[in-house]
């Protein structure tokens, strides 16, 4: 879903495609005859007020907006003190607390759409652990009969009764603010339902684990309080901000209309004032992350987090900007960033960029062999995406590789190097 150019001169296997202005075929546009200036201004602020109310209503209890720019030290200090949080696990100099031998409890959020609902049973089974907690959201656009069958399968498994939570279905718009709000709602539910988890991992139904649940718990448990994002090169951020924030984008998913047929993102012929008046960096990263509980609690309840959420209310692809920008512009959380989300995503194959979406991991050659089996075999990351088939021999192969002790040693070395070198890598973005 996310796109970013490779920072290297030669595109690599895992380098996303270059960002480019959106094609008309991807998003519907409306260009009405230009009304008088006073009417355009009135319409903009009416939209602003309505969407601001919706965002406040759909997240946690209202907190008065903070004073100044997102990078204000006073605001950072007040936010850090205001959020009820577990003991801070990142030291003042940004080093993580090491806890050898401890396993991290993980909160997984899985966003399911109609085309990935068949993937859920196997995905959930592979990442399940009795000490983890899970939130599953089914898009409101999924046909009722299909949705009912999927929920019944989950409820029929007694093992899932205590720690698998099914969220109320909402209308989710691809690339819209409703997708971001849905993730924040999941964070809040998981915080409310379980007091013990340490890390949050968001997934789509098209993700599949390259490591077992036990291995993920073990690796994350060694370094607590970190936040993992895959950033685009910093030189591309301003151009992407112009592309995605300069115009007002209206997300039908925040209309409260359960009868809305498709959940559509519409670009309005109104320039968004935030892109010209902001006093913070609009970061660009993949929407997929591994976030600490401390950071998630801040997202749900922090003053600065709420203010920045409103700043992205009218953006396209806000999920690729909001969380990364919030961490980047906050003095404490910037020190906790590890600049890789631990996902294998293939954007380049034989010199050909995939396009708007990455290659499917389970694509086959003409002879029937999987194109990316070797890359999967040697990957040291947590997940791969996207998988097209809900079950496949490639998934069986992935499941078997998790027993390879030498591979697990390589995974640990890779993660340790990412963590140890995070400050240098952030400076090199």
TrEMBL record:
Top-level taxon: Eukaryota
GO molecular function: glucuronosyltransferase activity
Biased segments, Low complexity type: 1-29
GO CC terms of this entry: membrane
Region spans: Disordered: 1-36
Keyword Transmembrane tagged: yes
TM segment ranges: 44-64
Localisation: Membrane
Tagged with keyword Disulfide bond: no
A Pfam family: Branch
Keywords of this entry: Glycoprotein, Glycosyltransferase, Membrane, Transferase, Transmembrane, Transmembrane helix
Mode of membrane association: Single-pass type II membrane protein
Listed PANTHER family: BETA-GLUCURONOSYLTRANSFERASE GLCAT14A, GLYCOSYLTRANSFERASE
Protein known as: Xylosyltransferase, family GT14
Source lineage: Eukaryota, Rhodophyta, Florideophyceae, Rhodymeniophycidae, Gigartinales
């Amino acid at each position: 879903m996310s796109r970013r150019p490779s920072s290297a001169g030669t595109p690599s296997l895992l380098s996303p495609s270059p960002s480019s202005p959106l094609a008309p075929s991807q998003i519907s546009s409306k260009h009405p005859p230009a009304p008088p200036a006073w009417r355009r201004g009135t319409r903009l602020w009416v939209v602003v007020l309505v969407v601001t109310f919706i965002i406040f209503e759909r997240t946690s209890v209202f907190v008065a907006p903070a004073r100044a720019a997102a990078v204000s030290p006073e605001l950072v200090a007040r936010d850090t003190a205001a959020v009820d949080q577990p003991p801070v696990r990142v030291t003042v100099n940004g080093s993580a607390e090491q806890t050898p031998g401890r396993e991290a409890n993980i909160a997984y959020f899985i966003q399911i759409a109609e085309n990935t609902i068949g993937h859920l049973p196997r995905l959930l089974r592979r990442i399940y652990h009795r000490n983890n907690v899970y939130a599953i959201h089914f898009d409101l656009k999924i046909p009722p009969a299909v949705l009912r069958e999927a929920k019944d399968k989950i409820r029929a498994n007694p093992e899932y009764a205590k720690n698998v939570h099914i969220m109320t279905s909402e209308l989710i718009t691809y690339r819209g603010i409703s997708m971001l709000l849905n993730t924040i709602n999941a964070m809040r539910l998981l915080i409310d339902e379980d007091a013990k988890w340490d890390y949050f991992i968001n997934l789509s139904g098209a993700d599949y684990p390259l490591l077992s649940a036990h291995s993920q718990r073990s690796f994350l448990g060694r370094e607590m309080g970190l936040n993992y994002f895959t950033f685009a090169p910093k030189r591309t951020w301003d151009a992407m901000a112009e592309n995605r924030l300069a115009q007002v984008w209206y997300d039908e998913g925040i209309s409260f209309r359960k009868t809305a047929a498709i959940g559509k993102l519409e670009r309005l012929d109104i320039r968004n004032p935030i892109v010209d008046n902001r006093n913070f960096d609009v970061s660009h990263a993949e929407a997929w992350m591994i976030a600490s509980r401390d950071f998630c609690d801040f997202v749900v309840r922090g003053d600065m987090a709420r203010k920045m959420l409103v700043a992205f209310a009218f953006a396209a692809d806000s999920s690729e900007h909001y969380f990364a920008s919030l961490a980047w512009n906050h003095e404490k959380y910037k020190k906790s960033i590890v600049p890789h989300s631990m996902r294998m995503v293939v954007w380049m194959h034989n010199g050909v960029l995939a396009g708007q979406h990455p290659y499917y991991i389970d694509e086959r050659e003409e002879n029937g062999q999987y194109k990316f089996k070797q890359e999967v075999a040697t990957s040291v990351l947590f997940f791969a995406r996207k998988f097209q088939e809900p079950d496949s021999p490639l998934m069986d192969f992935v499941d078997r590789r998790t027993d390879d002790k030498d591979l697990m040693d390589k995974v640990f070395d890779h993660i340790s190097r990412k963590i140890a070198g995070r400050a240098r890598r952030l400076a090199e973005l």
